[in-house]
């Protein structure tokens, strides 16, 4: 198991507190488990993670993380739409395959 320095933990906590960023997005960008980052956030709140944190994270990573978060949300939406379309295709295909012969016979006799 990898051990992280207190400075890394404080920086990760500070990044995760940026407005509009989710913990899971910051954790993914830092390649750590979201639960670990949540634990570090709790430790910081409870005063167990001490020391001087950097004043503010550089603007570049926060901007990139925000962009990554927006792309992940767009990807999730497209994935959801794709799954919905696949279900609709399966539903329509199943309806065509299960038409009973009597319903097609009645349609022919009424012509």
Question: What do you see in this structure?
Answer:
- With 111 residues, the chain is mostly helical.
- It contains five helices and no strands.
- Helix 1 packs across helix 3 and helix 2 crosses helix 3 (34-46).
- The longest helix has 39 residues, at 59-97.
- It starts with 5 loop residues before the first helix and ends with a helix.
The number of helices is 5
Helix content estimate: over 70%
**Low-confidence blocks of residues:** none
- What would you report as the Rg, rounded to the nearest angstrom? 26 Å
Q: Tell me the number of strands.
A: 0
Overall shape: it is elongated
Bin the strand percentage: under 5%
**Overall mean pLDDT score?**
80
Sheet with the most strands, sense and barrel status: none
Order of helices and strands: HHHHH
Helices and strands: which structural class? Answer: mainly alpha
- Measured distance between first and last alpha carbons: 75 Å
Give the helix/strand layout.
Elements: H1 6-16, H2 23-30, H3 34-46, H4 59-97, H5 101-109
Provide tags for this entry.
111 residues, mainly alpha, 5 helices, 72% helix, 0% strand
Summary, kept brief:
The chain is built from 5 helices and no strands. The chain is an all-alpha fold.
